[in-house]
Amino acid sequence: MSSTTPAGASAGADTLLDVVSAGVDVIDLGRQLRTGMPQSPNHPQFWHTLPRRHGDMTRADGGSAANDMITTGTHVGTHIDALAHVSHNGKMYGGIDAVEAGIGGKYDQLGVHTIAPMMRRGVLLDIPALLEVEHCAGGYEITVADLEGACARQGVEVRAGDVVLVRSGWGSLFEDGTAYLGKESGVPGVSEAGAQWLAEHEVHAVGADTIAFERLAPSGGHALLPAHRVLLVEHGIYIIESMDLEALAAAGRHEFTFVLVPMNIYGATGSPVRPLAVVPA
Amino acid sequence: MSSTTPAGASAGADTLLDVVSAGVDVIDLGRQLRTGMPQSPNHPQFWHTLPRRHGDMTRADGGSAANDMITTGTHVGTHIDALAHVSHNGKMYGGIDAVEAGIGGKYDQLGVHTIAPMMRRGVLLDIPALLEVEHCAGGYEITVADLEGACARQGVEVRAGDVVLVRSGWGSLFEDGTAYLGKESGVPGVSEAGAQWLAEHEVHAVGADTIAFERLAPSGGHALLPAHRVLLVEHGIYIIESMDLEALAAAGRHEFTFVLVPMNIYGATGSPVRPLAVVPA
Amino acid sequence: MSSTTPAGASAGADTLLDVVSAGVDVIDLGRQLRTGMPQSPNHPQFWHTLPRRHGDMTRADGGSAANDMITTGTHVGTHIDALAHVSHNGKMYGGIDAVEAGIGGKYDQLGVHTIAPMMRRGVLLDIPALLEVEHCAGGYEITVADLEGACARQGVEVRAGDVVLVRSGWGSLFEDGTAYLGKESGVPGVSEAGAQWLAEHEVHAVGADTIAFERLAPSGGHALLPAHRVLLVEHGIYIIESMDLEALAAAGRHEFTFVLVPMNIYGATGSPVRPLAVVPA
Amino acid sequence: MSSTTPAGASAGADTLLDVVSAGVDVIDLGRQLRTGMPQSPNHPQFWHTLPRRHGDMTRADGGSAANDMITTGTHVGTHIDALAHVSHNGKMYGGIDAVEAGIGGKYDQLGVHTIAPMMRRGVLLDIPALLEVEHCAGGYEITVADLEGACARQGVEVRAGDVVLVRSGWGSLFEDGTAYLGKESGVPGVSEAGAQWLAEHEVHAVGADTIAFERLAPSGGHALLPAHRVLLVEHGIYIIESMDLEALAAAGRHEFTFVLVPMNIYGATGSPVRPLAVVPA
């Protein structure tokens, strides 16, 4: 989805508002939340229902209100992992004791409420464009050479503080839910080496168009997640999963303003998000 | 909450990225989602819990993942009303039949998935600053004269396409849940006349720091909601409720870039949101 | 599960309490509710989580309380279908208009709250014992001849008001979730003819050890459910699904006191249940 | 609610089935589960909604199925406390370490799945009938003298293994939700002494018509729950709360067959239940 804010009068000394008022294009990087969409079976399924529909109850003045009930995990649809999501050998990022941190039923430290809204430089690394394939194969490991090759091909560099989105093309399978999960086929993505490369570039967050960001071996499930360890536990770098990177790649935008506003759920380990790439119209 | 994106190298011809890279301040206009926060009793309560905590299950490689379960209405915390939320005399905005629209259990038309992410001019109208009170009284109707007085006092004008945030100061009662709901006291806000004034200015969306945006009479409950009718049903203007406008008012920012990214829930009548006011650092 | 109430002193003129006090054996016909158990994908998944565990919060007096959050459909685990669950050509049992009945979001008529708790004669028809197989094959239709053959073999008759449990043996696959659902294999059960036979015997309710009570064709899904129509819509006979009939069959009990207490959920279309077969010890 | 199973032909040597077939009266001791009913604010609210109503989707053969989504705590409506619900000084019943027992997110020991279905002698102790009041006052402590007085007045004795239901009459306030919760007024019930008396009689379970079984002091909330400690932690006696004892008292039945079938939720701390008093017709 892409929408355009029409140009309007400028606001004087506010340079941001000047640019925004001149019109921006928004490319939606989030998946629509629908009951039945593909998601990890480890998390409560997303369900949406209408407890009250129009026609159920009408007020004296002729008005009626319909409403919703949602039950869901937070690691469903396009979502961000808070640092509290993962521990290794009993420790979370910064050496925080992972068991102690959960006492009380909220992660006061490193919960998703500690992730500041993001408006910063985003970079797309388009791996299938580099490899000249429609999408990387199931279980394919995106290597450091691939990451560097994509930078070179695109003429972009990864800088400290960036949000780096690694496109595998696997997102094109999203509508076919079972294929997207890749239980037997595996799922493409970076693994430990790629994660190290991203961490060395001191990025702020990373994202991908797959269910678990990192490479999953064929029939391997989620038993080993070395990139999660490197990024979340060792370097405090957020991970965004199940992104829709197709429109962004099609638009050929490799640098952009990346906007992400996590839900401010106190103590949660993640949040559904709807990240945006924004560019002047 | 306010966070600063540190200045970085610019990105060439991308004027938006130039400004963002020079650093922006983000003022959070959303309430934190916490179990037990004040919310309308007409909607499913927000609940967050951890099905799995660190320590419950550890993978062979020493890793563990904690996760969440959420159940909630969509009109909880800071949230936006989709046009599908309200009907009048059986019709929604654009004359759409409200009962028919709900068949299937999703509002295909006018659901929250039809609200485009917003990045546009925001205006704060600070009524207590005009009236020289800490907050407007329960049940106080914010009049057209108040709205125009706030514009004049602040030296801002409301333009077509703006998002207008009407501060009553009532948000300072949020932490004391019962007072905030204002069941007996009523709640301040615009009513039909103020909503008409906003609609005449062709605004894109409106927001307030109260539970129902509009004035609620003492002991009157939600039985009459004329501003909802004017805005949602007659003019297709979105309503944002339970905002936190205290930091924005304290910062004295009356014009800013307003950012709002609704959850893309197919067919829902609303969505929790975390709106932002963004200004150059 | 089977438990014995030890014999105690009798209660005088209360013949029921006399028998119960003399000791009864209870055979549990319900599946345990566990997150991840096999269930129909058409219904919200059963999830259980602990928002508060011991250790999270301790009262001044040294006490603490742990608690639960559940989200679930009602047609999960062992469950009963209320008459409101199914309509045919727009009508529910008794010719009630099915669309109109749902206005308000509760089935005031024919909802699960209208099912009286059951304590009545139960009959087990053990089809694999008759056919001398471990379990009926996927997609096998249990015929009228099978039902009558089971009665003859067992020396029992089906009477008006009975609850008749048709064992296919398919319940032995419950622990292997995917096989139990039988998406490709189909699932054994009665079809229209068997349902007619049961209806002619004026039974009060029927049950089976499969997910949908009736025969599902291989790869056919739930597209055609003629037995549901015959029983629920045409005759007002309740259906109990996903029962555990293995222990009852192993015990060789073909007649017993059947106890079923549905959850009294106002307006719901079904309820998880834990039916019991009770016999004197 | 009371329903009668009509008399039928007997089943030979099955003395239980003989009695049941001769007809029994069932008195429902459970509250109907409705969205908005009074419940403790410490537990997730009961919500029921219909994701699919008749008319939303019709199969090719003319059939349609409506279904439900429920979110709820387990300590809502009429419910039973499992022994895992409460700990004291870090220990549950039998000296089990309460923190350790919750690791994994399920109480493998003492969870509600460990409560066997009950069919045993039930005794009603009708305190308002003894005291000649409509209902005990808020905050009134039901004393040992009251319990013994009720036994004497009714001519019943409490025996080992019984389920004892202590009626305070407070249940008559259930429909007026706020009064029933008794936040300011307090709630009547036994306290430590009464719980000790019940424990000395070696009862199997106890129940009451109030939200917390035991006496709550005016404005005292749930800060001190000595009867819970005595019963659940020290003696392993189950507690049933928010029962409807009005019809049973009105019927003047003080001894009966008590039937209770907890939901078999693996690892949960409690379960909604619908207990029954059953007597020969």
TrEMBL record, chains A, B, C, D:
Keywords: Hydrolase. It comes from the Bacteria. One of its GO terms (biological process) is L-tryptophan catabolic process to kynurenine. Its EC number is 3.5.1.9. InterPro entries: KFase/CYL, KFase_sf. The keyword S-adenosyl-L-methionine does not apply. Pfam families: Cyclase (PF04199). GO terms for molecular function: arylformamidase activity. This is Kynurenine formamidase. It comes from Nocardioides dokdonensis FR1436. The lineage of its organism: Bacteria, Bacillati, Actinomycetota, Actinomycetes, Propionibacteriales. The gene is kynB.
